């Protein structure tokens, strides 16, 4: 038997063996967290294409670099979408055909939230309202882009906010209990403040007058301490100061004890060349309110508004009142402030 005869015999052998090998290729199962698996049948497709593996490999599916594709990508011709266009085979962009690959009913999607109850998306509630048109969401990258989004982003139209805008459906800016199952009334938020009593915010009290949407996320992100503001910021309308302006509610520049329970302003002392100087909050609060000094004259932090005696004599700091008219002058009676 010559070499040519051997080669011909080998080719005939391979021609017989390869189809059998291809036919034995297993089904591919794609698992989903919230739906039944999608099963790709090699047996069915190889029968359609005369056992020609190269129709898909490696032109559409790279066996060395396996990658999962989204429905949006398939609709643009990637993966299964290369053939399933409505011409060669049924289209992946046809809502009526979804059930040919996706068997069973989609399950609820549960989103775990830190500091809040789980949010639940129910397919069984949305699919009938959309007339079974799955692509309303699944072909929109803005809705099902795969990334987690914040409530602030939803309010701008991302994810659920694309529909839940108070026009097509209830707004994501309120109605928290409709998505967060078993949501208990929000807790009182405590803000730890260095050098002064903790500030507290009662959700229970405020929800008696306002809705979640009045504050979140226009004024506050849905996370305590996400952004801190100074009392000076609040006096300019930031944070709590948006309402606590002295018009809509008591001003943030006064009535400190309403937010800082148990507040007892300390007696302040400063070391100077003339001996220790002191300021008695208790004495002054018998005649004035916090807002008459804070933050117009003094910041809410010791040393932030320090001034020299010369500056005080010019009307700065303590000299605003201690001018010899409203109160004794800083030029006289040094022992009233300095332990000499």
Automatic annotation (TrEMBL):
<keyword id="KW-0732">Signal</keyword>
<dbReference type="InterPro" id="IPR029467">
    <property type="entry name" value="Cyt_c7-like"/>
</dbReference>
<feature type="domain" description="Cytochrome c7-like">
    <location>
        <begin position="38"/>
        <end position="103"/>
    </location>
</feature>
<feature type="domain" description="Cytochrome c7-like">
    <location>
        <begin position="120"/>
        <end position="181"/>
    </location>
</feature>
<feature type="domain" description="Cytochrome c7-like">
    <location>
        <begin position="200"/>
        <end position="260"/>
    </location>
</feature>
<feature type="signal peptide">
    <location>
        <begin position="1"/>
        <end position="22"/>
    </location>
</feature>
<dbReference type="Pfam" id="PF14522">
    <property type="entry name" value="Cytochrome_C7"/>
</dbReference>
<feature type="domain" description="Cytochrome c7-like">
    <location>
        <begin position="278"/>
        <end position="339"/>
    </location>
</feature>
<dbReference type="InterPro" id="IPR026352">
    <property type="entry name" value="Nanowire_3heme"/>
</dbReference>
<protein>
    <submittedName>
        <fullName>Cytochrome C</fullName>
    </submittedName>
</protein>
<dbReference type="InterPro" id="IPR036280">
    <property type="entry name" value="Multihaem_cyt_sf"/>
</dbReference>
